[in-house]
Amino acid sequence: MREKTLILGLFTVSLIAMGGTARAEVPAGHEEALLHKVLGTASCATSGCHGGAGPVRGAVAVFTREDPHARSYDTLATPRSARMGEALGIADVRSSASCTVCHAPAASVPEHLRGEDLRIEDGVGCASCHDSAETWLRTHTRPELDHAAKVASGMRDLRSAYARADACVACHQVIEPRLVEVGRHPRLIFELDGQLAAEPSHWREVNGWDGAKAWLVGQAVAWREAAAARAEGRDTLEGAVEREAALAWLVARAAGGAGAEAPDAVARRVDAAWTVGEGEAVLRRLAGAGGDFRAAGISRLEQAYRAERLVLGLDRVLAAWPERARARAAEPVVARLFSAAQSVPDFEPAGFAILLDELPRALGGAN
Q1: Could you list the residue range(s) of the whole structural domain that residue 61 is in?
Q2: What is the structure's pLDDT at 296?
């Protein structure tokens, strides 16, 4: 099996233990950065930097107070996690690589590469997303440095939807099958825009943000990861084939017929070529999918997973639609679609298709 990696700070952490498939390999020219230590959240939290007041200076306070990532390690100390550990035969989930690889990535960093302030208890800290600050901590505030120069010095580029999806997907899409089958860990569904919407903003958007674009890019990246996990034998859960097929269908429909285009290519193309107003076109393509749920030859299980992903997508793309009055008018239909897609075992494609047929009319305007 080809080992894939997740960049934690400037150290490469193997995801074999939990079955992740992050695509963030060591960037060309950054190989020497692996020798630098990974710094902790405290390095960013001084009062003159991100531990002070204001939208950017107060980022650490917002993150540690409100962001679930800051409490990811604490989750391992709950009774539910203990019960999962018992089922899996793990004596202490707080020290098991199967759990800490996502809930406390700092645990995977060797002692000699840990900065003095790197704490496992900090959960998913600053370095997990932004890379270790040792190479750029003292220079990234210099006004003469542009964004490209900061990225070249070792800071991870998170401005684009594709970059954010790539950074997040490993711990939010595919996990080790036995964690689900034996430990009853929830099955994961990666959705970039929905997860960012639920996360308190501790950053400043420089180029604006289009939720519909982020949703579609995220789904293409999720499809890429699902396909890789299945091809490499890391996703052996029941329904894995149908879930991958459902994602492929969803991305093709939303993107206007991706054809034989590879999922990563779709994600990059949408990220680079998105135009203003394209979100409405995506919304109407999804709303017009009723006939697909009447198609012969598609298993009910795959249709159930199609519906599961579709209703989540409709919710996010509708939330990003500037036509707010028409979006609100369509919300009752989407709510009924959510109810119809709630139970995978009991899913009825024909009834779902009838409900979905109501959505284009509810949206109004040109169809």
Answers
A1: 1-157
A2: 93
